[in-house]
Design a protein that fits this description.
about 130 residues; mainly beta; Immunoglobulin-like; four-stranded antiparallel beta sheet; three-stranded antiparallel beta sheet; 1 helix; 7 strands; about 40% strand; globular
Length: about 130
């Protein structure tokens, strides 16, 4: 019985589905990614300029970060947002020196707020080299 349980747990994680892009809230209670500009640096790493909209309400409820993930949900890059943007909506912040594994041509960028976490619209970003 124990072996069956262990094999069941392994199979569940080994065959986990890809990141779900179709389930999200459009409410501005959740941080929404509205635009992403991805550019490759001479080092091969990437810069992401990410625009986010959220109904920031001071320190009690604000968009506090965004991240770059692959389609399995693995975090590849992260930008902490260190203060509310009550009077600047949408706002854009950049993060550079993000390493994307070779062969990856698309990533997902999603944002979160300190009250509701993730759950707003994420964007798929095509990574094209010049």
């Amino acid at each position: 019985m124990k072996l069956l349980l262990i094999l069941s747990m392994f199979a569940s994680s080994a065959f986990a589905s890809k990141f779900d892009l179709d389930t999200y809230s459009t409410s501005l209670e959740f941080a929404q990614v509205t635009k992403v500009l991805a550019t490759q640096e001479s080092s091969g790493n990437w810069c992401f300029g990410t625009s986010v909209i959220h109904n920031d309400e001071s320190w009690q409820h604000y968009a506090d970060s965004w991240e770059v993930i692959d389609f399995e949900g693995k975090q590849l890059g992260y930008r902490k947002l260190v203060h509310p943007h009550d009077n600047e909506q949408p706002f854009t912040r950049s993060q550079c020196d993000i390493k994307i594994p070779s062969g990856v041509s698309q990533v997902i960028v999603r944002a979160k707020c300190n009250k509701h976490g993730y759950g707003g619209k994420a964007l798929i970003v095509e990574l094209s080299t010049n």
